[in-house]
Amino acid sequence: MQKLILSVEDNPDDVLILKRAFQKANTSAHLEFLADGDQAIEYLAKMSQKPCPSLLLLDLKLPRKSGLEVLTWMRTQPALKRLPVVMLTSSNQPEEINSAYDLGANSYLVKPSNMDDFVQLAKAVEAYWVQTNTGPGPLGWDRNSQHSTLNVQRSSSDEQSGAEAH
Question: What does CATH list as the number for 4-165?
């Protein structure tokens, strides 16, 4: 079964570069993209209806909700708290790096400045996170009872903003 890497990236140029880098790296994982923090939370909140990612690549500076806000929300969700999250961002500010780790990021990678380095980064992500790493069981899967326990809650602020949009 092909593993899914879900990337949350708002910059269309970076999306194109990531797609090309993962293609050139000949990775086995399927890459999907979301453009902002709200889309990430909406996707993850409906995990029982969507493909389950093996890894989340999360940009720090996103519209609507930042990467750190998405990460904070994820780590409060029982079904998502173990999903591996790699921050993939342009920022190399120590405060932001520390905040990401404090909130539960599994790794923090600074976006390379050229395509060759992006391809090397894609190969490293594939080698470690897709091929080598043993991640948690399927999200929402209770190994003891052999049934899905997926129960993701949207925050009350998310529900209010959703109600305002209608």
Answer: 3.40.50.2300
Tokens of 101: 């780790």
What residue has token string 């140029």?
13
Work out the burial of residue 1: count CB atoms within 10 Å of its CB; fewer than 13 is exposed, 13-18 middle, 19 or more buried. Answer: exposed
| Token pair of 88 as six digits | 């993939």
pTM above 0.70, yes or no: yes
- Extents of the domains making up the chain: 4-165
Three-state SS at 97: helix
- Which H helix or E strand runs over 86? strand 85-89
Burial 76-91 (b: 16+ CB within 10 A, else e): ebebbeebbbbbbbeb
C-alpha 77: how far from chain center: 14
> 113 with 120: CB under 8 angstroms?
no
CB atoms within 10 A of CB 25: 18
pLDDT values of the chain reduced to their tens digit, one per residue, 166 residues? 789 999 999 999 999 999 999 999 999 999 999 999 999 999 999 987 888 899 999 999 999 999 999 999 999 999 899 999 999 999 999 999 999 999 999 999 999 999 999 999 999 999 999 999 988 865 544 433 333 344 455 554 454 444 444 3
